[in-house]
Amino acid sequence: FGTICPWMYLLTLINFAVCRLVYGYLIPFAETRKPDLGGPFWVTALRHTHHGLMIYVILMIGVLWIRGPNIVPSVVVIPALAYVFFSLKYFDEHLAWEKLPFHEMMTKEGKALDAATTKRELSAEYVQTELLQPSEVASS
């Protein structure tokens, strides 16, 4: 919306500065470290970014349609909507992120790469003491 109202940039800067202070404290100190489950969340965030980009392109087509001197500027931007749509389709159908490429892992290079990867160990284990037996609570 900054392209429509440039004052939004100032409000956005203030918002991000406050968020940086708040989340800069909350993220490292609010929770303990847990095993990573970033894959599905990262892909969902990228998909939502594509959807937001589609909404933005549609909005800009409408702004150019209404504010433009004629229909030509909005017609010029319409191929951008097609590009964003097909890039989202390519992202959903052709990028394999859920499964390892088995044929690549079975080659000598793939086995060597997997063997060279250092595995990290979890340093702590969470145990909910309310679910333990009374004898287990006394021993811990």
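^ that was protein a. below is b, sequence first then the tokens
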Amino acid sequence: AKAKAKATTKAMDEDDDDEEPEKPAAKSSDEMTVFVGGLPFSCTEEQLRKDFGECGEIEKLNMPKNDEDKPRGIAFITYKTKEGVAAALKYDGDDYGGRYLKVNLAGQKGEKGKGDKGKGKGKDGKGDKGKGKG
């Protein structure tokens, strides 16, 4: 079954020549993207570009907003070089406009966060309630 799946993937790639170069890039973009949390809500994308642009050339900057179109205090910054990423990671824990920055590699955050939340709720929630009633 595995061999078949590989064969179909190859055939699809050959049809869409445009997509092929993007796939390896997507994987490495995680290594080139930093997650920045703890941003002041007053911080603008322009301000971020200026400050984090000092680390290295920014390829892409994404500042998610909430339903009311207000900044959520987080951003994803993709750099063109690993040096840029390394320099940005040094901002972790710095005071930035009265809030402490949390800077880490974007790929790492998702994995850690999901795991911790899942375990915590399951074990603590059910365990404590059961013991308390009995």
